[in-house]
Amino acid sequence: MSTPIDELGNAVTATHTQASATYKSAKARATKATQDFEAVFVGMMLKQMRKSMASDNPLFGKSSEAKVYQDMMDDSLAQQMSRTGTFGLAKAMMKSIARTLPADPDAPIASKRS
């Protein structure tokens, strides 16, 4: 037989579990979005840097296949940089976006200072 206290405890636990899942899901989506944005930005930057390089001897040659391979390498490098936080744009964006996320139920409550 459950008491009202037990039922209240179960309701609190269920609410906490749901709030925690909502927070983790929203944070994961925001993190992925910021990393994807950073990867696109860095990829565009790498392509522009490569265009500005005046070289008669490109790294992979001058064929159309070499151009495709170079673009793929730039995209892969941009993805890697965004996933490891090397560039830092995603981290800065996430810091700004974090204020719009649902509250983290596991975060400590800050004490008020008078």
Structure overview:
The protein has helices at 4-52, 64-84, 89-97. With 114 residues, the chain is mainly α. Helix 1 (4-52) runs antiparallel to helix 2 and helix 1 (4-52) runs antiparallel to helix 3. The radius of gyration is 23 Å and the shape is rod-shaped. The two termini are 46 Å apart.
Summarize the structure.
The protein is 69% helix and 0% strand. With 114 residues, the protein is mostly helical.
What is the overall pLDDT average? 84
**What level of helicity do the residues show?**
55-70%
Q: Which sequence of SSEs, written as H and E, runs from N to C?
A: HHH
The stretches of 5 or more residues where confidence is low (pLDDT under 50) are none
Percent of residues in beta strands: under 5%
* Shape by Cα distribution: rod-shaped
What is the rounded distance between the termini?
46 Å
Largest sheet: none
What's the Cα radius of gyration? 23 Å
Summing up helix and strand content along with how strands pair, one would put the structural category as: mainly alpha
Give me the count of strands. Answer: 0
Number of helices: 3
